[in-house]
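dumping this here before i forget
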Amino acid sequence: MPVRKSKSYRYLLPSTDRDTAVLLMLTVAVAICVKLLYSNAGADELRWILFPTAELVKVFSSISFLFEPGKGYVGLGAPIVIGPGCAGLNFFVIALCMSNFAFIGHFEKHKLYGFLGLVLLTYVVTLCVNAFRIVGGVMLLEFGRSMNFAVSDLIHSVQGTLFYFVFLVVYFVALRAILKQRNPHEDIH
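structure:
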């Protein structure tokens, strides 16, 4: 009796041609490089992601920031520092792997452009999600002060984790909808 491939396998790797396999390996390589960079980097090396994040937080919250070497972007008049721990690079790595492993095989032509587009889109999404997470953290701190309780590191971590999880799901659903609209006859799960 012949063995049939399950539909769930097709979902994970909808197209297993050589180009797709190379791009998936490149995705893993980029993820590893970002993790290695992030694990050893300080605020000075992470300005490429901390600066735009601080600018977006300023837009959403009206808090201005000043860069302090070795520390990060310090809020002027607000007890907030956007430093290496606030870079959002773990979210970037997870979102990049999710988007490429779930969708790169759906690009029939120009897979390299699809890959580069997903990398750029994931970077922009990471900046926005991270800025929303930081603004949410500031709001949580202000709420805690108004209610006379301290926001612990655990509460801050849970808030960040929930933001990242919800936005990762939203990012997945949005990408799936965009690709489905681009090619309505393809079976994108």
